[in-house]
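MODEL INPUT / OUTPUT PAIR
PAIR INDEX: 1
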Amino acid sequence: MLRISLKMLIRHRSSYTGLAVILILASALLGSSFSLYRSAGLITYSSSYLSRNEIAELLSRVVSAQTFTGLLVVIAAGTTFLLTTQNIRFVLDGRRREFALTRLLGATTAQINRTVIIETCLLVGMCSILGAALSPLLIQPYVALMERSSNWPKGYEANTDPVALIVTVFGVLCLALLAAVAAMFRQGQIGVVDSTRKDVSGRSGLSIARMIFGAVGAGLLFVSFGPISANINFQVGTILACGGATLLAIASLPLLVPALARLFAYVFSLGSAGARMVARG
């Protein structure tokens, strides 16, 4: 089963390229944010060298740093799950004829699901480890940005936390597995005959709910970057910007994921006939 999953992963590598990029970037962001969250909680001070006002400012910045990085961890994890679900769903939709033929040859739905889960574990394992390994490169620029915005104690450095990186790898793996299960549940509702049709995904585009999400997200981004942004402090502006970007990404998932997947497939199409089929699909 592992050998078959590895062969399928290599065969459909162009389809999984977009997902790989998402996982690497998400792991790098989650790893650096969680490392800073833990580093902020380990900051110590001596009351012998600091005044009461300095201690109060230090503690305020520590709380602000943990709030800011913790918020980014939550937003990044939620966005990663949604993007991964949509990307895996798109990949599975492109392989529904393959799954239908496999079923006709005697394979059960459980066997197909196990193959997809193993493929996901292999891909996510490699990408999350690579992203976590790259996350230390983001820590110092991250700290400099937070220090300029009064969200990090001045003069205190942040180090890479191995525990945070390990938790990041396993966390991204769990998120991706949940996303794969959610995508496979929808794929399992499609019959064998329907799987051979060109399009069984139903009406594409933006639903009313997604339009509302997109409008709210665009409004939050306008507030955080528009003319009135000068009257909003950094913490509130960051929350509005992150929330608006997340809602806008959720709303545009049905349009962005297929377009990005076909773009990556087109890049690989020069040397792969299978990638050309994905790019045309």
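PAIR INDEX: 2
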Amino acid sequence: MKQPLLQALRERVLILDGAMGTMLQERGLAPGGCPEEMNLHAPEVVAGIHAEYAAAGADIIVSNSFGGSRTKLAHYGLEKSVTEINARAVELASPAAVAIACGNGREPRRRFGEQDVRWFEEPVSSDDLVGLRLLRDRAPSGMAIAAGEYEWGRDGIEELAGCVDVVQADVTRIGGISSLLRADGICRARQRRLDREQARHHALDSLLERAIEEGGVSQVVEIACGMSPRGWRLRDRYGDRLPYVEADLPPMALRNRRELARRGAGSGGQRHVELHALRKG
């Protein structure tokens, strides 16, 4: 935003969203329960509430982190989850905030139109279907919301097709040409575009593997790469001989570590870390 918050306040009344705890209690939070814990166990509920406030005309979205301090969370035995709970709170609130910025029909919409913005790629995580749908429905006319590059399966592609204008599919991730053709069929049935993301990955893989074989690479670090299939391939090929580190924002790094653990694939030189960890050497 070009205008700071104080300038906006001088020009008009800004409307904050409403109560979060009351809404959560209406949707499953037990009396005396921890509202912030729902960021982890019922994220779709929290994101849905944010989306409803944005749709109702709120100018400011407040994350579900009012009681997110270590002292407060200790009452529920959650003091070790402070970082995870608060990071997730911001992640869940972000789609509604972005939707307000690009879809409320005020100054941001005019600026997008003046600059002829036509493409908004993965404005929020592809896991956040509520946020993607909200952005698509409220984005300025002519702007395409695109996501899905890191999607692994047909079910995920089908869900995304109902939430975005353009589904991105990487042939190296979704299982080859046959899966890519199925994804194309899903998009055609939903009257959505399919954007193929494989060419640049093949080029990068070729250059990287050549450098490794020639002895010019002893470690690979990918930044903000999601769950990269490149890591799987290099781990299978080189094992512990080639450390492979994927660094990302805290919510994505946490998601990737969980996925590695779920697949029983947390060894073999492949690690997922938060971006700030790179500064620690």
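PAIR 2 NOTE: The longest helix spans residues 82-103.
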